């Protein structure tokens, strides 16, 4: 079910031209809603998919189960899809290559690959040579398939709070990001960074485009674009917001009322129409 080659080139163009707001879906319904809003491409969220299926994030769902969900989402929309493949579901470069081949077969035109060891390493993150080898394996897998996969290298320095202060975090992120770009990544993703001035310094120091995440403390995508980010991802935010709304409806239901459900109601006819094409 590999995506058409035009989808790969279109997604590559969207990232290169910049100012890309990328929503992250966790099922077919959320993907269809994002597509209906006119957004030009969609990504998956590993956290959102895991929570919807009763698992914690960080590779608890597993490769095969995650690839099935990615394939279902890819089939549900006629837009370029980037797959969150977490840390590749294995420590070795060969594990990453296997996962990339699976993501391509599922219909993805891009992937996110983390340098987070998720507790399987002696240290929080893969060291730079190891992660660079894993990214190189991802690139080789795509090249062997003859497909221009967009590889987004996630750097988890900020998420893990590494370094003694923000200057050390910035230096570590720049070193990792540029090494990952040299190894075959197309873009560097730095979730957890919430300071626009630091983001601008980071964007200027990287040898490739920067992806940042929507965060509650950031007013909107424009702040990140102005700082030099080429892409802003919604990440797991929409799924968590949906969970917050369901929690409120649950509390109201316990009292025998449903004002939040009424306020946010999506009509049955609308839902049927949303899925009429597929």
From TrEMBL:
InterPro entries on file: ICL/PEPM (IPR039556), Pyrv/PenolPyrv_kinase-like_dom (IPR015813), Pyrv_kinase-like_dom_sf (IPR040442)
One GO MF term on file is: lyase activity
Name of the featured protein: Isocitrate lyase/PEP mutase family protein
Which CDD domains does the entry link to?
Answer: ICL_PEPM
Q: Which UniProt keywords apply?
A: Lyase
Q: What's the source species' lineage?
A: Bacteria, Pseudomonadati, Pseudomonadota, Betaproteobacteria, Neisseriales
- DNA-binding as a keyword of this entry, yes or no, is no
